[in-house]
Please model this.
Amino acid sequence: MCLAFPPLLIFHNYRLHRDKTFYLTVSRMQTSQPCLQCGACCAHFRVSFYWAETDDVTPGGVPIMLTEELLPWRRVMLGTNRPEPRCLALQGEIGSKTKCSIHPRRSSVCRDFQASWEVGIHNLCCDKARAAWGLSPLTPNSWNSPNNFPKAA
Ligand code: SF4
Model:
């Protein structure tokens, strides 16, 4: 059962990397980054996190204007605390082309959510979110990554 918004790992800012060989390798990997054509997890779960992650308390944190209070010690991304959630920070069309508009400033719960098989680990919550949007589950072959092999530990 997906109780919260579990590990999410969507995009990395590889462009800062100056090694050309590395950059070209990663550029190829990015062409098969299924999260950029998905966004289902950002439009399926409630996304709540510890209140102090917002930028009124933590400089560079989650923009507080995109959140609301859930509990005295927790905030929630606007648009996700409802029966048909969709985070207000999500741009684009689910299953086609999507982008987190606050990616460098997203909450810990977003950072921790790991797409299924991205690092060789199956995530049933990723499958569940994709299924809700009529998308088939990701498989190890969805990733053009050297880390997509199954791991025992
Ligand atoms: S903040 Fe970004 S990563 Fe987190 S749910 Fe919203 S769109 Fe998705």
User: Anything to note?
Assistant: Residues 6-31 have pLDDT under 50 and may be disordered.
